[in-house]
Design goal:
alpha/beta; eight-stranded mixed beta sheet; 13 helices; six-stranded mixed beta sheet
């Protein structure tokens, strides 16, 4: 049997798309040029709250949360002259064992799933295990996407065995390119990237050294340590809290030659150690930070998601997470058509919803990079910053105050997680009220169609756990008749709830919500033409 969806790329984005589609009953093939046992990258180190909510639905949130850093390892961010040098400022965030305690920047976030600081190194195996546990999934490692040819009925995909060079053709209804920044799928689509092609040049080395943790001395250790001294700028990320550390070093000024930044000495300058300090190189990559968004996310039956669709400097750690949000959006829309309850036109919502959001997120990230650069006045870091004495202490205090204010929103990005909204979707019914603005660190809860439904409990159960797989009608007055919608062509689950006292954003008796928690319609009674509402939300009302 031909699959419903072929996914090119088994990184976190492609794997999540395949998991979600398979859980919805679709037949999926996943192509991956890496071997089944090849180690994942360690580049992404933050799992956003919205992504953890997805993992909650997958049934793997507890397993994900328990992996990576030890229970007692803090997720603090420090700004410092080197890992062993004096600190400029500290943004204190909880260890796993400290979750539930007050006093942390994200302790009041509106979710049962706070963000998790964890390396992709530990996340990918959990996702892979979940993928392989599902019926309807065929995983093809050591298999590279080559090309596609589509027609009115489906897509023919040519792929190549990486080991022997043999090629095979596969047929599916849809193709999803989750194949990274150099995406062959995007290139064949002819979708150009626009934005800032070259922003930051970085040398990144994964090292192994049990001695690094001792460099914190008697201080509380940090998950991420941003380094600024007269020799190097960059950051150090704790991967397992014991002996694995990711060391990023930025090329200075307008330098574009990676070799101009000494490989070994720049690591030692970031750590603040001498020539005898022991470490082992596990992996290394030189890379260029970019802010680019594809001009189109779709060509007929072919789609792109994740890094294939958008690239940006990794401020706020939202690249992988935005890609997983793409994947969840696309999977739901494709499966709505595959399952037969939606018109193929519903898929138009994917690009209409996700492309503007990725543009917003990339601009937030770019702005944060610029703010941090401006904090040092664009000048070289003076050697005095690292030295003891009153002058060094004054400089550290002054710069630290600026960096704290700039970066709390980045390290506790509540707005980025919960504030974004879909303002121009063909399957969301606007009612004339504008969605509230948001920024990286803050947002205003709202039920304006397109916004995320405010978080609350229903009879002691989290609303997230009660939502149906497609649409849910939340009724705050049991006297309001809703049978006409429940009997319509729209797949909808009824949830009766009391209006939560601490949620002033809820001002209507009926709110219709998607599985991804975004509000699509609200009112005090059903509209006079329920069939018209159902038609819009199933894509049948969308015109070219």
């Amino acid at each position: 049997m031909d699959p419903d969806i072929i996914v090119a790329g088994a990184g976190p984005v492609g794997t999540c798309l395949a998991i979600d589609a398979a859980m919805r009953g679709a037949q999926v093939i996943v192509l991956e040029p890496r071997g089944a046992d090849d180690p994942p990258d360690a580049k992404c180190n933050t799992i956003a709250a919205r992504t953890m909510e997805t993992f909650r639905r997958f049934g793997i949130a507890d397993e994900v949360r328990a992996a990576g850093l030890p229970d007692n390892y803090p997720t603090d961010t420090i700004y410092t002259t080197s890992l062993s040098g004096p600190e400029l400022t500290r943004i204190t965030m909880p260890a796993r064992s400290e979750r539930g305690k007050a006093g942390f920047h994200d302790d009041l976030w509106p979710t049962p799933e706070p963000m998790v600081r964890q390396s992709q190194l530990y996340l990918e195996p959990i996702l892979r295990k979940k993928l392989l546990s599902l019926p309807g999934v065929r995983f093809m490692p050591r298999t590279a996407f080559v090309s596609f040819d589509q027609d009115a009925d489906g897509v023919t995909v040519t792929c190549r065995n990486v080991d022997d060079g043999s090629e095979v053709s596969l047929r599916s209804r849809y193709l999803a390119g989750c194949d990274g920044g150099s995406s062959p799928v995007r290139k064949q689509m002819g979708s150009k990237l626009s934005g800032d092609a070259e922003i930051a040049w970085t040398r990144t080395t994964l090292i192994r050294s049990a001695e690094v943790r001792a460099l914190f001395g008697n201080r509380r250790p940090a998950w991420m340590s941003w380094i600024a001294n007269d020799k190097v700028r960059g950051n150090v990320v704790a991967i397992n809290g014991e002996d694995l550390w990711l060391v990023h070093r930025a090329l200075p000024g307008k330098t574009r030659d990676f070799e101009a930044l000494d490989f070994d000495q720049s690591i030692r300058d970031a750590l603040g150690v001498g020539p005898d300090f022991p470490y082992e190189v596990v992996k290394h990559e030189d890379w260029v930070g970019r802010r680019l968004v594809a001009e189109k996310f779709r060509e007929g039956r072919v789609f792109i998601a994740g890094d294939a669709a958008h690239l940006w400097v990794p401020y706020a750690g939202y690249g992988m997470n935005a890609g997983i949000a793409d994947a969840m959006n696309l999977s739901w829309l494709l499966c709505a058509v595959i399952k037969g309850w939606a018109d193929p036109a519903i898929i138009d919502a994917y690009e209409a919803e996700r492309q503007p959001i990725t543009g917003q997120v990339s601009r937030f990230a770019m702005a944060k990079l610029e703010e941090n650069a401006a904090a040092t006045g664009g000048r070289a870091i003076p050697a005095q910053l690292s030295k003891p004495g009153p002058i060094g202490a004054f400089l550290r205090r002054k710069l630290g105050s600026k960096l704290f204010k700039i970066n709390v929103p980045q390290m506790s990005p509540e707005g980025l997680n919960f504030g974004y909204y879909y303002g121009s979707s063909p399957i969301i019914v606007a009612d004339g009220e504008a969605a509230p603005d948001y920024d990286m660190g803050s947002f205003t809860p709202s039920t304006v169609p397109g916004c995320r439904m405010p978080h609350f409990a229903v009879n002691g159960k989290c609303l997230l756990d009660l939502l149906g797989p497609d649409y849910s009608l939340i009724r705050f007055d049991p006297a309001v008749p809703v049978e006409a919608l429940l009997a319509s062509s729209l797949p909808v689950k009824l949830i009766d709830a009391a209006v939560p006292a601490d949620t002033p954003a809820i001002r209507h008796k009926l709110i219709l919500v998607r599985a991804d928690t975004h509000v699509v319609w609200r009112g005090d009674t059903l509209p006079a033409n329920v069939a018209e509402l159902a038609q819009k939300l199933t894509g049948k009302g969308i015109t070219a």
